[in-house]
Amino acid sequence: MKRSSKNKSSERKAAKANEGAGLPVSDNSDALLANHAGFSPDYAGANPELAGYHVPVMLRECLEGLNINPAGTYVDLTFGGGGHSREILKLLTTGKLYAFDTDPEAALNAADKEAFPPKKFTLIHSNFRHLKQYLKMYGVTTVDGILADLGISSHQIDTPERGFSTRFDAPLDMRMGPNVAQSAADLIRTASETQLHRIFGEYGEVTNAKTLAAAVVKARIMRPIETTGQLKDAITPLAPRNREFKYQAQVFQALRIAVNEEMEALEQALLQSAEILKPGGRLVVMSYHSLEDRPVKNLIAKGKIRGEAEKDLFGNENLPFKKINRKPVEASEIEIQANPRARSAVLRIAEKI
After folding, report:
1. Fewest CB atoms within 10 A around its CB: which of 42, 52, 96, 185?
2. Rounded distance, CA 35 to CA 39, Å?
3. pLDDT tens digits in sequence order for the chain, 353 residues long
4. Helix, strand or coil for residue 182?
5. In 10 A of CB 105, how many CB atoms?
6. How far is CA 333 from the centre of its chain?
7. Distance CA 97, CA 108 (A)
8. Checking DSSP bridges between strand 96-100 and strand 73-76, what pairing results, if any?
9. Taking Cα atoms as reference points, which of 176, 182, 149, 146 lies closest to residue 162?
């Protein structure tokens, strides 16, 4: 039976909330099994080597969006399991790909020199907020395309000791890389009630963020909140009835974003992308919740993260990009069945003017 557009919209919203904290994004057990066991045979770009780390979402759409020049220079801002990078490299002849990732475990996925030949590929162990700085170190000032698959990888979610998921009782860490100064437990311990209110409200879109912040402060006085289980114990009594899982997901998402300064890093990378892309170069960004998607949408539509587009003396808007897709691209039903994480993905593609 074909699902109505209303049902599909509701499912996507629920998936976005669940994805942020490692909750299942579908109640379809077969689809969940497919997500952990590997690609569906019908899914373009299937690669069983990536099954245990992270399944790249909308792989074909991302590659088409980049409009790859075999001799061009490209950047993958979020290497992760290397799924997108691997396929980009197959399309390059004399071109070059630079990839960013702060997670030391991601480097293990680049060990295959046949799939990631050093002459064509460089992995940069840094946050993508330093995009221009590191590319300049390699003598690169302009590029032909930039890809970003935002959010958190399946591998990070499924590794209990990383503390990203509500499914495990584990240390409350949530750091995406070794250079992140404080863990989520550190943040819970040291942040003021006002700061927690802002974090829960802005990054988790929690409706009772003020009450929640007060409850967390009270709970940490009674005992330290150092594990995911202790955090869940502190916040679950404040969750709306029958929406406990979603509420936990929102809170975990908020803390993860705050710990890793994800929004600040994204905004910096987007603005730098507009500076280094060549005319005709492509920006391809995949987001998994509205907080990530909003600055991408604004940059493409207005040339700015916030505010209205700048205009010249004649009232014409000065826009650095033109939209390639009028509406954001969403995953097909076939892909969603094979990889439930794809349900919450939104893909935007723009070309540098």
Report:
1. 42
2. 7
3. 444 444 445 445 445 444 444 443 433 323 322 232 222 223 333 344 444 566 899 999 999 999 999 999 999 999 999 999 999 999 999 999 999 999 988 889 999 999 999 999 999 999 999 999 999 999 999 999 999 999 888 888 888 999 999 999 999 999 998 889 999 999 999 999 999 999 999 999 999 999 999 999 999 999 999 999 999 999 999 999 999 999 999 999 999 999 999 999 999 999 999 999 999 999 999 999 999 999 999 999 999 999 888 888 888 888 999 999 999 999 999 999 999 989 999 999 999 99
4. coil
5. 16
6. 21
7. 17
8. parallel
9. 176
Return the residue matching tokens 């046949």: 114
Question: Which residue type sits at 263?
Answer: M
Q: Please tell me the distance from the alpha carbon of residue 353 to that of residue 32, in angstroms, as a whole number.
A: 41
What backbone phi and psi angles, to 5 degrees, belong to 279? -55, 130
Kindly report the backbone phi and psi dihedral angles of residue 281, in degrees, each rounded to the nearest multiple of 5, phi listed first.
-70, 155
Distance CA 186, CA 175 (A): 11
Closest CA to 248 of 156, 166, 188, 152: 166
Q: What is the pTM of this model?
A: 0.84
Question: Which residue do the tokens 């993260």 mark?
Answer: 305
Alpha-carbon Rg for the chain in angstroms: 20
What three-state secondary structure class fits 337? helix
